[in-house]
Design goal:
Chain A: The complex is composed of two ATP-binding proteins (PotA), two transmembrane proteins (PotB and PotC) and a solute-binding protein (PotD). The complex is a heterodimer of chains A (352) and B (264). By secondary structure, chain A is α+β, with helices and mostly antiparallel strands. Chain A contains eight helices and 20 strands. The chains are: A alpha+beta (352), B mainly alpha (264).
Chain lengths: 352, 264
């Protein structure tokens, strides 16, 4: 059942259009990420759901109730901010209980809920501390508890982990997902970090320049990006400009070398490129696979993997190999054969 | 570790500045204690404290100062808050407006007030109560640069927009945001603005004397014309008032600023 629905949302600030024709239906309990570079309109869309911005056109409904013009304090939508936004004058317990105090819940109910929320984020012993006595990660957990305490219909998170260091970020990411699952809460998560989006979400909305590029599960987004933008933005990708030799079976040529694409759709004469992820490519030649020869340009050590940069027919291509102890690294300028399975690559139209 | 060499020039300038500042004060204090020949006494102070006009002036000015502070807070906290939230581009205009009381001489301002409000249709100077309303309005304007700046600085240390949005998403309306979130976090700023306004109003002469109200400063001026030792004693008393205000200011700002600045 559709829980949150955004239809034909448009937002313009004067002549600048920030969000254009945004349509999305979210089911109860779903975890949705808005992913995109800064300025793509993802935060503005979230702020419209929260009620901090009003859409120029379009409607927002929660449980079939039109909330497009409802003020933020009447929406019952929990929000977590990048800068935590805890109230500096209040203790952790008062911060968490704030929303209940406003809705004039009884003191016992408030205390009980605060206790429950602090248990949920495993911070019961911090109830009497002030925000300035907590680390960034702890502050953000309190902010999460505060947003959840009002039992919101919807939880919105605006880049909640961006201000934290890598280790805490990872910990808190799992924590957010755990709590979200436990409460079965519909959640919208804004991020520019693809790893966060891929690891957390049920579905991802990839945005660019105010428009939706693709909506899909993490697997769909990564394995079958709909546009060149999505392919480039999510993960690393090799895009080789190729010439179609046979539109019926996806045979293409790259310079003098011939390749076959696993997926190719309707080819309508526009310039196309062959897309393949670096981790799909292996060293050495192999019959039945696409095999290419190229010159080694760079070898970059990344810990668990090694990224090898090649030049094939004047085009760059990179591949990732696992850093196993038996691995013999190629030398720069060496000519190397590589291969990748036919069904691991696809043809994509070149965007303008 | 090498010891820091003593900077003699710095010490020289500090001593010089201290002398410049404290010598006249010491002179006044010394003079105020010499009302009785060949002995140190508090006679001048006794006379001042025994004078009902002093107490009347003191009470009147204190009351006016408190009303001024309340009016200023009610006027400026929401205004500055709104400016931060909705019209940050209006800031330069606000800066200029709030600095006007420094630029326009009080005497010019008072004549303006009298010319406008003592005539029909207002005729505010006909009754004591309406004159007091006029004087409070005047004091609010005179203390505006201090009040505005204090609140402005406090507001700048807060992430006003995000705090407001956080409170709104938790169900607060504008009034609740202001009362529960913004004002408590501006406590220090509001108090410092209030104390400076208090000191300003307590020492304000021109407005009170032209509107003929029994404030403290006109009494001091009157005393200065006719007496020798008592004005010196009064000067020390008003110094003490200012210093108590400043001391209180130090005391309140120590408790809160660190939390305010780091708690965002």
């Amino acid at each position: 059942m559709t829980h949150l629905e955004l239809s034909h949302i448009r937002k313009a600030f004067g002549p600048a259009v920030v969000v254009e024709d945004f349509n999305l239906a979210v089911t109860q309990g779903e975890f949705i990420s808005f992913l995109g570079p800064s300025g793509c309109g993802k935060t503005t869309t979230l702020r419209m759901i929260a009620g901090f911005e009003l859409p120029t056109a379009g409607t927002i409904t929660i449980d079939s109730t039109d909330l497009t013009n409802t003020p933020p304090n009447k929406r019952n939508v929990g929000m977590v901010f990048q800068s935590y936004a805890l109230f500096p004058n209040m203790t952790v317990a008062h911060n968490v209980g704030y929303g209940l105090k406003i809705t004039s819940k009884s003191k016992t109910e408030m205390m009980q809920r605060v206790h429950e929320m602090l248990a949920l984020i495993q911070m019961e012993e911090f109830a009497q501390r002030y925000p300035f006595q907590l680390s960034g990660g702890q502050q953000q957990r309190v902010a999460l508890a505060r947003a959840l305490a009002i039992r919101p219909k919807l939880l919105l998170l605006d880049e909640p982990l961006s201000a934290l260091d890598a280790k805490i970020r990872l910990e808190l990411r799992h924590e957010i997902r755990r709590i979200q699952r436990q409460l079965g809460l519909t959640t919208i998560y804004v991020t520019h970090d693809q790893e966060e989006a891929l690891s957390l979400s049920d579905r991802i909305v990839v945005m660019s320049k105010g428009k939706i590029e693709q909506v899909g599960t993490p697997t769909e987004i990564y394995n079958a990006p709909a546009t060149e933008f999505v392919a480039r933005f999510v993960g690393h990708i090799n895009l080789l400009p190729v010439t179609v030799l046979n539109p019926a079976n996806g045979v293409v040529s790259l310079g003098r070398q011939t390749l076959r694409a696993g997926r190719f759709g309707q080819l309508n004469g526009r310039p196309v490129q062959l897309a393949v992820r670096p981790e799909e490519i292996n060293l050495g030649a192999k019959p039945d696979a696409n095999t290419l020869n190229g010159e080694v340009e760079s070898v970059t050590y990344l810990g668990s993997i090694v990224r090898i940069g090649l030049r094939i027919e004047h085009h760059p291509l990179s591949l990732d190999v696992f850093n196993e102890h038996t691995l013999k690294l190629p030398r720069i300028s060496e000519t190397l054969a590589i291969h990748f399975p036919v069904d691991a690559c696809w043809l994509m139209e070149k965007s303008d | 570790m090498k010891a820091q060499p003593i900077n003699w020039w710095a010490i020289f300038w500090i001593v010089l500045a201290a002398l410049y500042f404290f010598l006249p004060m010491y002179g006044t204090l010394d003079f105020s204690l010499r009302m009785e020949r060949n002995t140190i006494s508090l006679k001048a102070y006794e006379i001042v404290f025994a004078d009902p006009r002093f107490w009347q002036g003191f009470r009147y000015s204190t009351l006016m100062a408190l009303i001024t502070i309340i009016v200023s807070i009610i006027l400026f906290v929401p205004t500055v808050y709104w400016m931060y939230l909705k019209v940050p581009q209006a800031r330069p205009i606000m800066e200029i407006i709030t600095i006007l009381p420094f630029v326009i001489p009080t005497i010019v301002y008072v004549f303006g007030l009298i010319r406008t409000f003592s005539r029909p249709p207002f005729q505010l100077t006909l009754h004591a109560l309406t004159t007091d309303m006029l004087i409070v309005a005047g004091y609010v304007v005179i203390s505006m640069p201090f009040m505005f700046r204090a609140i402005d600085v406090g507001m700048r240390a807060l992430d006003v927009r995000t705090l407001t949005e956080a409170a709104q998403s938790l169900g607060s309306n504008w009034f609740q945001v202001l009362v529960y979130v913004i004002v408590p976090n501006l406590r220090v700023a509001i108090l410092s603005g209030a104390l400076i306004s208090f000191a300003t109003v307590m020492g304000e002469l021109i407005l009170a004397s032209f509107l003929v109200r029994p404030a403290l400063a006109p009494y001091m001026a009157l005393l200065g014309l006719t007496k020798a030792y008592e004005p010196a004693a009064l000067a020390i008393i008003s110094y003490a008032l200012t210093w108590v205000s400043l001391g209180l200011l130090q005391l309140v700002s120590r408790g809160g600023t660190t939390r305010q600045l780091t708690g965002r």
